[in-house]
Structure formats: C-alpha cells, structure tokens
Amino acid sequence: MLPDNPFLQLVLPRAHSVLDRIQSLIWIRAANVECEFGGSFRDAISFEHAAGLPYEKIVLPFYWGGIFDRGWFRVRVPEGCVRPLYLHWRDQGEGTLYIDGVPYYGFDVAHRRCRLPEGVTEFHVEGLCLQSAIWHPEATGLDARGSALTVAEVCHRDDLAWEVYHDTRVLLDLAIEEAKAANPFEAPKLVGAGYRPVLNSIPVLYRRMLRALDDVFNAFDRGGLAGARNALKSAYELLSGQKETIRAVLTGHAHIDLVWLWPERGSEYKAVHTFSTMTRLMDMYPEFIFGYSQPASYDAVERLSPALMERVRDRMGEGRWEAVGATEVESDTQMACGEALARSFLLGQDGFRRLQGRPSPVLWLPDVFGYSGCLPQIMRQTGVPYFFTTKLTWSNINLFPYSSFVWKGIDGSEVLVHVTQDNGYNQVASAEELRRGARAYRQSDVHDEFLAPTGYGDGGGGVTEEMCERVRRFQVLAGTPHVGWGRIEDYFERLDEVRPRLPVYQGELYLEYHRGVFTTHGNLKAVFRQCERALQIWEAARVAMGGGELEAHYWRRMVMAQFHDYIPGSSIWEVYEEGLPELAAIAERAVASAADELHSGPEPALFNPLPVSRTVIVHDQGDEQKAYRLPPLSGSSLQTLPEVFVSEYAVSVTATSLQSSRVSAGFDGRGRVTSLAFNDRDVAIASPLGALVIYPDHPSDFDAWDIDRQTLNLGAEISATGKPRVSLSELEAGIEFTLALGERSTGVVRYRVDAFQPVLHIEYDIDWQEEEKLLRVNFPTEYAGRMARFGTPFGSILRSQQPGESRDEAMFETPASRWAIVSDDGEAEGLGLVTESKYGFSCRAGTLGVSLVRSPRVTGGEPEPKQKMFPASLRHGGARAAFTDQGRHVIRMALCFQAPDLAREDLAPVLADTLYTDVVPYRGGAVTSGFLGLEGGESLVPCWAKPARSVSSGWVLRLHETLGRRGRAKVRLAEGYQAVRTDLTEAVADGVPVTHVSFGPYEIISLLVERK
User: Which of 6, 506, 689, 1004 could form a disulfide with 408 if both were Cys (CB 3.0 to 4.6 A apart)?
Assistant: First the structure.
C-alpha cells in the first residue's frame, strides 16, 4: 500500500468523475405513470373545466400544442409502487402539478422532480407550450411538432446519495474558488490531459480542502455512500469555523416578466407555476424566505387559483413570503409621463395594502433600463423610503460607483438604495457568486451585509431544492461569507442604521446599455402616448362635471403597458398584436366617454382638458377656420367662446419660406431649415436644421434593446427630392418636401406655422421598409453650453453636451419625456424641440437630435439558434415581419424658442401637452372646474386634473416645476372654490386653504380643489 496521494494538484480533476457516480445513485426509477391528454387551449381554463375533459391515453414521446398554448394531462400512478414517490416530469415546456385541484409544484428545466403526497394516486398537470429558460444549460427549445413530453415516471430518491452529493458538490465549489484566489491569472484545469502545476505556495484553507476532498473520494471508492458520509462529516468539522466578516442576505427570487418572450397570459401561468413551487419549498425548508413584487401577478393567481393564493397569504402571515415592490408592475420609469408613472405607485401600494394591510416600503425594480431622477420624490410621496435594483451592473462603459448609497432626486428628495455589483438577479447560491458578491460590495467598510436575490428569474421558476441544500452547507463551511435567508425589509432597516456613513448620489441613474428601447416599436410608443392623453382628457371631463374616479381597470391596463419589456419594445410580436388594439380601444373609449359625459344640450361646444389656457384652430362645417381662446379646464358653447381674430396677412408661404406673426423660417432645396426666428428673436443656427440621417443599425448583443456607439458615426444624410409644395389658409401656412429614405422607404416632411403658436410644426409621414436601419433628425445650433436640458417625467434633467468625460460620452443616446432644450451656459436663450411621442434624444456640441424609427429584428425572431424557442410551425396567426416598425409612421414634433422671460404657455414642457392634446368637441353648455389659472412662477406647470381618490366631491390639480427654478405662484380659483395642499396619495396635513404656492426646483405639488 502506498501512502496518501501527495499530488494535491490531481484532486480537482478527479472530482467530476466521482460526483457523476454519486449523482447517478440519487434517483431510482420505479415505474412509468399512466398519462392521458385532454387537449390544448389558447387561453386558461379552470381546473373544474379541465377535470371534465375527455382524456385519451398517450405514448411518449408526445408532442403537443402551439406556442403559448396550455395543455392538460391526467396522470395515474401504477398500483404497487412503494412510497415515498417522486414524479419525474420532463417536458420541453413548463408544467404545473395539481393535487386535489390546487397547484402544488411547477416543472421546468430547473425543476424536474417533485415528491408526491402520501396516498395520492391520480393528479393533473397543466402544461405551457413555452420554454423560456434560455439561460439554463438544459434548455433545448421547442420541437417543431410542439412541446415534447419525453419522461413521465415515478421514482425513489436515495436520501443518503442526495446528501452526499450536495455535501461533496459544495466542498468542490469552494475548492475551485480557492484555486482561483490562489492563482487569479490561471483558471484551475479540471478535466483533460496535460501538466498541472505543483501547489507549492497556496492558502492553508485551500490545501486542507483538497486533502478533505481526496479523503472523501477515497472513502467513497472504499466504502460507497456510507463511507463518503463519514468522511464528509470529518471534513465539515475540519473546515467549519472562521467566516468572512460580511454576510450575504439571500432572498428567494423569481423575476417574472409580465410580458417578454411570452404574452401576458403566459406570465399569469408562470405566476401560478412559480408560486406553487415556492410554497412547496417552504414546506421542505422551514428557513427559506421568498419575496415577490407586482400586485398584477398576485391578482392573476387570486383569479386563477384562490386556494393557492390562500397558501401564499398564510406564508405572508408567517413572515416567510414577502410581498414587496411598491409599483403595480415593474414599470419602465422614463417613457411614461409623470402622472402615469405615479399611478403605478398608487395602484401598486393599494395592491400591497390588499395583500398585507400596509404599503410596501421598498421599490423593487431589478431589471429596468435606467431610473428617472424624479423617482425619489414619487417614492417619498407614496411612502417608499427604500429602493433595490441589479441592472446598473449592466452598464458597459463606466462602473457605477456604489453598492449602498443615498439617492438624492432632482428635487432633493432622498431614498436609500442598494445595488448588486457583479451579480444579477439570476443567482443560484454558488460559492463563486457569494464570494464575488462579497468582494464587490463597495460599502463593506461601513456595512457588513449585502443582498443576494437567489433563484432563476426571467420566468425561470425561482429557487430550487439544490439551492436550498447549498445554502445549508455554506452556513457552516469556511471560505464564504456568512450566508442565510433574510427579509428584504429587514435588510434595509439595518442598512438605514448606517445611513449617515453612506455616500450620496444625485440625479438620474442612467444605464449605459439598452439605449435603443427609447425608439424601438415607434408605433407602440405612439399609441401608448395617445392612451395617456385620452385618460387625461377623460379625467379632466370628470373633474369639470363633478364626477368620480375612472374605473380602476383603465389605469391598470395603462400601467401594464409601462412594464419594462412592454413599452420599451423588447417583447415578441404576440405581445403587441394583443396590446396595441387594447391601448387604442382604451384611448377611443376614453375620448368618446369624455364627450358623452360633457353632453348636456344641442349647442356645439369645446372643452379644454388641460389646466392651461390655449388658443385653438377649429374647422366649422364649411371647412372655414376659426380660432378660439379657451380657459383652463373648462368648456363653453361656440356661441359664447371668444373668437380670436387676426389680420389678413397673419401667415404667408413661398417655396423657400414660412411666415407668421410669431415665426419666420427659411428653407433650402434639400428640405432643411436655413433660418429661424421666434417673435423676432433669431435662433443661432450652426448649419441647416432638420437634416435626416440614416444609419446601419447592427447591435452587438440585443437587437431590440441596443443602439451601439459605432452606429452613430456611420450615417448618411438624406435629401429631399423634387420641388416643394406649399399650402395656405387664413390661419395656417405649410411647405412640404418629398424624401427618399434608404433603399425601399419613402416619405414627406411637412413644415407648418399658424397664426398663434410660437412654434415651427414639423411632420414626417414615412413609409418605412428598411431592415436594421436607424433614422434620426439633427438640429445643429451654436448653443454649445456645457449642459443641455431633457424633459423627464415630472421635471427635467441636465446632461452634458460637451465631449470629454467618459460618463458624458457614454450618454450618446438618452431618454427624454418628449422635449429637450439646447442652450448656452446661462440658458438666456436656446432652441427647444418638442415631440408628440418620441423619447430617444441626443445632444453634442450644440446639435440636438432625436431618433425617429429603427428596424431591428423583433425579439423572438432572431436567426438560429434562438429561434428554436419559437418554431414557425407552432405559431398562431401565420408569419410575422422579422423587423420592427415596417409600415407607415406619422411623426409630429415642433421647434420653439427658449428664454427666461417666456410665458408659461410658450415653454417647451407646456407645448408638449398643448400641441398634441386635442380639445373635446361636445354638445351642451358651459362647464367649469373652478380653476382659472396661475399667476407667476412660469416654470411651474399645471399638468393634470383628476377626481379625488376619496368620496368627496373635490378634485386634484397636479403641478410640477420643470426648469430647475424656485418661485411662487398665485392660484386663481372661481368664487366659491378653495384649494389645500396634499400629495400624490391625497393625504391632507392641515387642511388650511392656500391662495399661493411656493415651490422649489422640480417639486411635485398637488392641490385638492373643493367647493367651500
């Protein structure tokens, strides 16, 4: 007999062979189950319906369903099988096991086996024809014939083999991490032939781990599982002890995209599927704690399986299931207008009150593509002091500097933030992740914990038994941080104790990645904005008529469209084929309902749904143009409205110019603006404005999500063709140029002025047929100050427009909430750009640009190998376009002047509403809200009117400061009305009526207006 093996460098290569042998002993097949199929369905059916289906026996492999279909199986265990039994269900899609009609466990590529309750011999499995776990090594995609069910059997588990395997696996993982630490420049060679360096100088812990592993392997070879078990006990006694001084707080996680690679009905299935698995794991592992956001998912589970939701509530009551998140869905925070974004918080907090009797103190947005600087203020006003995300670690140019910090919003509101570094939200409780998380925690010098969301996300089913087993072992072994399951709220409360020692970060949290989402699926973004405006109109009509709140359904559906893979345009076609008609129908219903509710008589009338005065041009029955001055939030018959008259020469046009009393513009033959003045103030133009540029658009990674930097230096300018066409009426004048766009696309650009607005209207009417191209328009000026101003929900943000710093250069495509201003350093004058529904902007050295359309491949339509997830043969509805945005687009925008002395209604933030929110024609008499307008404080914009949430007859006026100024404004109300300060939740502190409001930069102000 030779002495112990002295070549410790050979231990790791030995490990995989031994582990494979141990793993092969865990599962022992007992018998195939008897399996019957009841058919597949596009939509969900109840269990009661499913139980009564006519089932037929099937033979494996069995192929079933079209993409996103649900299929029902009835399963029987053969007689005589010895208990306990595990069901092994291997379907390419996902499956949910139902015991006695209640969801019990979810099967997917990460969850293959479930222990059956004693005595259960017959049960059902609901399948989903979708394999979404693209990150998992066992993901194969779907077969062209349908989802392939290949294994349906019961088996036994050798619990000794299970324990030995996980004990050994964890030791090996730790040893591999120690090997990496010992030689960070060379990964350990685990398999294959070749030289392996002698381990002359390595940490003591690593050397002891290798010897312990070698002893375990020897014991297994000599004495099988029992021998290995004894050796492992000795190894764990030897290697337990000193831990790192930092603790990893694990929270069970299962990020479920409400839409993405599946339509909404797919995510509802996934919620049932995942919730059933997580409650089952809590039965098996009493220490396990799970957290989930999104009241929309809880509502779906309540509707589809009340019994399962009752189990979830029981776990909430135990403190082991954490309903945390603050918003109705995990919303994009940059493209919704401020009011619509606030509604996600208000609906979400109502949802959390229903779930647990109180609002959520944590905003949970792990996977959103950047975070608006208005968020801290919205959070504080809705009772949310804490915020968590992982996405900032995706930035591809600059590392975000902090892990735990105080985030100060653009208005100065502060919240406490924790951001994962180096790890995302698909963590599996590996030694590598835990050690990496500890090393990357930037504030470990003042705080001894970091948060680790653990489980398969992106619809992957959450935590697994294997993860729970690993956590138990890491709790006792040296070589990792202290590890344990914990509650998210508790973590933030402990972090709050060291708040004074944490760094502060002010402004937006810009993600240096996924910059294309501000533009992708432009038709979706247009309908989304149309729907926002329509709900604004409907709520304003309710205010004027003294009505109550809208049915919550409409805002819930509007907020659903804010989900971070919906409005960004990063989902599959099925999402938009269902979503676009729904949003359009809501918009149509809202505007029609507003007119119906205003109706009170036969007289033609107009209603202004905006809380700002405006002059509008209307066409009478003879198509004659007339102009009327409309007070804010009120309506009158045309007979009583004051008509605005102009001189005969208010507007004019030639082949090279447009003129009104407020705007003067010159044009060249290429369809560009060569000169521009507003109210006799010349705009400092560097070169002609409005140059269209087309770019090849081939992102490196994610087509629908990204615009890469190299794209923006590969553009070719597009010129107009043919002679311009002009149009003229008493109140409007226009000039139109034909465009040749790319290889197959065509379009026109129309410029227009009217007698009243201080803007140059621009309209692009485009038939876009390009593939993998980006179309942008640029406006080069001499306003090359240090910063440019971009609209945000509830405010604006200053971003550098000068070359230089890496952080500034990374912002080559940025979000803006429909407007931007470029100016000199003093902001004494500048050029404003207002758009109807465009969100992707840029500004460099005085040139303001906006992305119009782009045509990347649609998500889910990628070439092989990814398209195996969505075989064309399984799709409902036939072939779909491979590229986004092909078709007609009518894109409206306007140029305006910016100066400190402008009146409120001439400012870009106000024009973004007044130019594109229509007045409402109705029949009847005068209606009024009691609001007559503001005096002073021009940058304070009254932006929205809504019925109060309470049962009172009052209504709420929302205002927000837009340009970073302080001031004071007088609130003008009709006789018999009064206003009191409130907040987004409409809580009233002192109830003292106010006649003036003082405001700070970017402050959100809410006034409750009531009759005295």
Answer: 506
Alpha-carbon gap, residue 390 to 401, rounded angstroms:
13
Spell out a b/e string for 279-291, using b for 16 or more CB atoms within 10 Å of the CB, else e.
Answer: bbbbeebeebbbb
Cα-only R_g, the chain: 32
Name the burial class of residue 153, with classes exposed (0-12), middle (13-18) and buried (19+) by CB atoms within 10 angstroms of its CB: buried
Q: Give the CA distances from residue 688 to residues 55, 684, 717, 849, in Å, rounded to whole numbers and listed in that order.
A: 71, 11, 12, 13
3-class SS at 694? strand
Packing angle, helices 338-356 and 522-545, rounded to 10: 80
∠ CA 424-426-431, nearest 5°, is 85
Calpha distance 342→374 (Å, rounded):
10
Note if the bond before 286 is cis, omega within 30 degrees: no
**Euclidean distance between CA atoms 636 and 616, whole angstroms:** 13
Identify any residues that bridge with 103 across adjacent strands, giving them in sequence order. 98
As a whole number of angstroms, the distance between CA 336 and CA 526 comes to 12
d(CA 275, CA 463): 11
- The pLDDT of residue 620 is 74
Gap between the Cα atoms of 332 and 524, Å rounded: 14
Number of H helices, E strands in the chain: 17, 54
Q: For helices 159-182 and 465-474, give the axis angle rounded to 10 degrees.
A: 60
Q: Tokens representing 151?
A: 């294994």
- The answer to whether the beta carbons of residues 156 and 87 sit under 8 Å apart is no
Nearest to 816 by CA among 408, 413, 373, 393: 373
8 A C-beta contact, residue 566 and residue 575: yes
Distances (CA, A) of 408 to 182, 697, 810, 999: 41, 36, 22, 18
**Residue 79 CB neighbours (<10 A):** 7
Separation in Å, CA 111 to CA 308, 417, 441, 454, 460: 19, 33, 31, 15, 9
Task: Residue 665: count other Cβ atoms within 10 Å of its Cβ.
Answer: 24
Give the separation between CA 436 and CA 444, rounded to whole angstroms: 13
Note whether 686 and 905 are within 8 A (CB).
no
**Structure token digits, residue 951:** 């049962």
Which tokens sit at 650?
């208010």
Ramachandran bin of 642, using left for φ above 0, alpha for ψ from -120 to 50, beta for the remaining angles = beta
What single-letter DSSP state applies at residue 82?
P
Contact 247, 448 (CB under 8 A): yes
Q: What is the pLDDT of residue 648?
A: 65
CB-based contact 798:791 (threshold 8 Å): no
User: Is the peptide bond preceding residue 856 cis, with omega within 30 degrees of 0?
Assistant: no
Averages of pLDDT over runs of 10 residues in the chain (1012 residues) are: 81 91 97 97 95 97 96 96 95 97 96 96 97 81 94 98 97 92 78 76 87 95 96 93 86 96 96 98 98 97 97 97 97 98 98 96 97 98 98 94 97 97 91 94 95 92 97 93 97 98 97 97 98 98 95 98 97 95 98 97 96 92 85 95 82 96 95 96 97 96 95 93 92 95 92 96 97 97 97 97 93 97 94 98 97 94 66 78 94 97 96 97 96 97 94 88 98 96 93 95 97 90
Query: Which amino acid, one-letter code, is at 40?
Result: S
655 phi/psi in degrees, rounded to 5: -70, -10
Let me know: does 50 contact 124? Beta carbons within 8 Å: yes
Structure token digits, residue 219: 């014991």
Cβ neighbours around 700 below 10 Å, total: 9
pTM: 0.96
